[in-house]
Every structure is written in C-alpha cells, then in structure tokens.
Amino acid sequence: xxxxxxxxxxxxxxxxxxxxxxxxxxxxxxxxxxxxxxxxxxxxxxxxxxxxxxxxxxxxxxxxxxxxxxxxxxxxxxxxxxxxxxxxxxxxxxxxxxxxxxxxxxxxxxxxxxxxxxxxxxxxxxxxxxxxxxxxxxxxxxxxxxxxxxxxxxxxxxxxxxxxxxxxxxxxxxxxxxxxxxxxxxxxxxxxxxxxxxx
Length: 199
Ligand SMILES: N[C@@H](CCC(=O)N[C@@H](CS)C(=O)NCC(=O)O)C(=O)O
Hints:
CATH architecture of the largest domain: Up-down Bundle
GO molecular function: transferase activity
Number of strands: 4
Number of domains: 2
Keywords: Transferase
CATH topology of the largest domain: Glutathione S-transferase Yfyf (Class Pi), Chain A, domain 2
Bound molecules: glutathione
Protein name: Glutathione S-transferase
Number of helices: 7
Structural class: alpha+beta
Organism: Permianibacter aggregans
Helix content: 40-55%
Radius of gyration: 17 Å
Order of helices and strands: EHEEEHHHHHH
InterPro entries: Glutathione-S-Trfase_C-like, Glutathione-S-Trfase_C_sf, Glutathione_S-Trfase, Glutathione_S-Trfase_N, GST_C, Thioredoxin-like_sf
C-alpha cells in the first residue's frame, strides 16, 4: 500500500490516477494543514509518496519514473529515443505547462488592483494557451500524447485543464486537446481518484 499526499485536484492527482492504473493500493492523505508535512516534503508541495518499505518520494517526475519502472509499465518506453521523447513530454507538462498555470494562481492571489490583475492574468493566460496549442499540434497527428493510448502526460494535462475554472481569464484549449481531456476524465481510475480526494 502506498501513502500518497495530495491537495484536492492538484498536480498530485495524476499520481493518484497512475497508482490505480498500475493496480496499486493507495491511501490518499490530505496534505493541507498537515502538521509535520515538511518533514516528508521539504518544500511543502504535493505530491509526496511513501512506499511499503518507508521510502519517501517527492517531485512528480521522479515519482512517475520510479513507479513506471518499478511496476514494469509499458508506458515507459525501453528504446532510448522513445524513452527520451516520453520524458520530454512529461517534463513539458511538469516544467513548462504547470509553471505557466502556477503564474496564474500566483497573480490571482497576490495582485489586488483589479485592472492590474486583469492585464497580468491575461498575459499569463496567453502563455498557457500558447502551450495548449503545442499540445493541439501534437494531437493533430495522434490521438494521445504518447500515441494511440492514454498515458500519464495526458492525465497530467487533463488535471491542469481542470484548473481553468479557477481563473477570471480565458485559456484556449483546442478541439483535439478537449477530446483527449474528455477521454481522460472518463477513465474509471480518474473518477476514482477524484472521489478519493473529496475529504
Ligand atoms: N516541483 C514539484 C512542484 C509540485 C507543485 O507545484 N505542487 C503544488 C500543487 S499542484 C503544491 O503543492 N503547491 C503548494 C505549495 O507548494 O506549498 C513537483 O513537480 O512535484
């Protein structure tokens, strides 16, 4: 049984989905206001995960690569160029798209002047939309980010797409990406993860 520390609907939800897709048992723990959480995750960020041996894992990409390799998942290509491409898109999600959304969250919470907030958030949202266009370009050639099967990159992107509802500015997502997101949201593991984060 894995222990997974999450914030409801945060990026940690992708790990919640992945553990289910890998047929692993998971105890989902709400990290919000959890005393001592920084002794598990020094930055205070989720996801954090503890395995049955007591090994502690933080940082989404490291957790995903660990789980895929440990559970011998076909999602992680063995051939070097394919593996590098998979990691490229994983880090596109985690280190390009996610920080672009983080800027929106940051501006939404710290900018108090309404006109300044509208301007800065519009610029930040344009960057997020630009990144969704990169996803759209990829999905114009194939149904999912890794080919014809949903993979963890699709799941991560679908989790981020759910954040659009929090902002008073428009993020544009193309039709192919919207179809991919709908398929991810229909996955039983995605639905189960959503339920498990209703604390
Ligand atoms: N570098 C970390 C960042 C994770 C991250 O930004 N998590 C957000 C939720 S999506 C979080 O916990 N933010 C609250 C905080 O950092 O205190 C990773 O990739 O796992």
